[in-house]
Amino acid sequence: AQLRYSVPEDREPGFSVGDLAKDLGVEVRSLATRNLRLVSEGGQRRFQVDLAAGVLLLNSRLDREALCGQSPTCTLHLQLVMENPLQLHRIEVDVLDVNDNAPQFPKPEVVLEITEVANPGTRLPLEVAEDPDMGSNSISTYELSPSKHFALSINVRGDGVKMPEIVLEKALDREKVAVHHLTLTALDGGNPVRSGTAKVTIHVLDANDNPPVCNPPISKVYLEENVPVGTLVTKLNITDLDEGPNGDVEYSFKTSNNAPGKFTKLFSLDPRTGEIRTKAPLDYEESSAYEIAVRARDKGSPAMEGHCHLRVELIDINDNSPEIVLTSLSSPVQEDATPGTVIALIGVKDSDSGDNGQVHLQIAKEFPFKLVSSFKEHFSLVTNGPLDREKASGYNITVRAVDSGSPQRATQKTFYLRIADVNDNAPNFSSPFDTAHVQENSLPGTSVFSVSASDPDEGSNAKLSYSILDNGMQDVPISTYFRIDQDNGTIYTVRALDYEQDKVFQVPVEVKDAGSPALSSTAVVHVFVLDENDNAPTIVYPSVPKGSAFHQTIPALVEPGYLVTKIVAVDADSGHNAWLSYQLQETTEALPFQVERRSGEIRVAQALRESEDPHRLVVEVRDNGTPSLSASVVIVISPEENSVQDFAKSLDLPKSSPKDTNLTLYLIISLVSISLVSCVMFAVVAARCL
């Protein structure tokens, strides 16, 4: 918003200028919490804000004449900044003039000379009184003390200044009155009226009775600023009807004590020709016009003089580049900031006038920001789209200011805006499914696998911790088998694993960041237990107690190849560890029997003799593991003459005992487990290929 107040210049400190809270439409109690700040141009603290009452107070007494000089208006510019949300308000305070200065003449006594042959109507210019006040408080009129010969005439100059002149109304006679004493009074228009006086002494002289005359007495010249030094401004046209020395005119600048030589530093005057030229660069921004008073004096005796008034008005050219002022910047800004969020407050000014001072701001279109005009020469930089710190962690924003002059002038300012992270990205595993292998019977604490996840956020939003989830797929919680290092994601065994009990585990792993709210994702690690040869073969048939022998009878006369019996054994291990081989332990005597290495069948190797003694065989069953494990059984074969055993009967196995039934069940479970493991491995391979 933009507020405007006015205050007389003579008010004491603490004077209430305006009710800010009421005019801004905010509650008084919110001013302190919103960190209200008052910024004055130039850095001088002439005002203050009473946060308890919400009013703008005068901090020091103002002097309009010291602040603005002879400017017709006197305005002080303030900026009011409030936060949460960030707002900028512009305040203009007009300093009202008070009639606190009386008119004053440059000299308390003025001495004039006039020839006695001067004709009625002759004019004697007087010094203009100075009054620092403005408007109605400035000089209103002049008064001259009563005189038989002289009267007062007031002319108005082009800039509105009243110029007093003494006019001769009645012919003079120096022999009667050689000196006239008058009093000139300057009155202002204030209430009460203030005045100043000067004594005027007029000496009546003889001779030179024609003063130089300027034609026209008041003129105006237009000149571009920054013209080269030495440029001719004008040549004065002065005429003097006298001849000889009385008509020979010399030119000089007429200055006042209050502004001595202000324009004489910029212009030069040829005393012989009356040419006025520039002698220093002119700047429209410093002053747009100059009032030049020229005195033309002849060389008569007494000398007579005339006065010319020249107003030089400068034409502005585009010689000033715009200026960018970064009033406030909110950096960093959250990446989830909504469109329209105010990022910065930017002010711009150009000392030129008209189109040369009209400034436009621009920023790059590819950025998610735009400029919004708050009020004259003030802009807000707001978000114009979504921000993503993971794509751009910050922006170097260049603001370019271009005026409307010809040729255009431009300037630019670059500032860096940092984007603050928001926890808007969940951590991701490098793979949602992983496969690991671990040897059974490994010691607790054995490293199985390391999962890895990443999070594009930063800081605490990217700090990851790992944990194992119990999914209920096993009868026993998965956490009783495995644990995970929450910092690096390494999975360790909690206890020794048994391949024969569990061949594969599905370990669900969760990774979670430290953001608020926390985000997470999961992955599954398939842990396959590798078999170890830790189970010796078990002889299923014949089933005999430990330390006993199995007795088998056969006919006495049998041919070689006769099937005596068959050894059946199983191994709880798998793969090579479960490959079994059968063999007879070596003895000192040759046995007429042999055992098939793979099938375990015992057959007659050579013909038996009649009434042959029983044979004692030790059959050893050995697996293919490393180291190899084995089991053995003792079989006593007795040939009998009356024993009749056909081939089919020799193959009949005894009825299975409950223990044999359990072993058969173990075999079936092993086969099913191997099949399931194969299916899982095929599924994992297919998933990774996809």
TrEMBL record:
SMART domains: CA. It comes from the Eukaryota. The keyword Repeat applies. PROSITE patterns: CADHERIN_1, CADHERIN_2. InterPro entries: Cadherin-like_dom, Cadherin-like_sf, Cadherin_CS, Cadherin_N, Protocadherin/Cadherin-CA. Residues 6-105, 106-214, 215-324, 325-429, 430-539, 546-656 form the Cadherin domain. SUPFAM superfamilies: Cadherin-like (SSF49313). GO terms for biological process: homophilic cell adhesion via plasma membrane adhesion molecules. The keyword Aminoacyl-tRNA synthetase does not apply. Its main location: membrane. It is found in: Cell membrane. It is a single-pass type I membrane protein. One of its GO terms (molecular function) is calcium ion binding. The chain crosses the membrane at residues 663-687. Keywords: Calcium, Cell adhesion, Cell membrane, Glycoprotein, Membrane, Repeat, Signal, Transmembrane, Transmembrane helix. GO terms for cellular component: plasma membrane. Potential calcium-dependent cell-adhesion protein. May be involved in the establishment and maintenance of specific neuronal connections in the brain. PANTHER family: CADHERIN-87A (PTHR24028), PROTOCADHERIN GAMMA-C5 (PTHR24028:SF349). This is PCDGM protein. The gene is Pcdhgc5_1.
